[in-house]
Amino acid sequence: VQLQASGGGLVQAGGSLRLSCAASGSIFSVNAMGWYRQAPGKQRELVAAITSGGRTNYAASVKGRFTISRDNAKNAVYLQMNSLKPEDTAVYYCNADVFGPRGGMDYWGKGTQVTVSS
Asked: Which of 21, 36, 18 has its CA nearest to residue 71?
């Protein structure tokens, strides 16, 4: 199973970006999917997560600015980021809890850089 993320880049404060991530490979079903981020010198933290049924969870720092969604038919998850702030600068990683031939496993994408300039 592979997770391919895209959509990062450089944006000015107040701008928007949309991250996309799709899972591919031997997949029976995808349970929770989410986005994490890691800024230089900091630990990786949860940004947002979504269950297969559409229940969402957000970090307090992004609530009201970011929206997570998913397309179950495509095994894809998206993160719409609005009103971006310099403190949102980080490498963003997608994560998926995938059930496949070997049972349930947790997978990570390679990460996409988001840089917000002031």
From this structure: 21
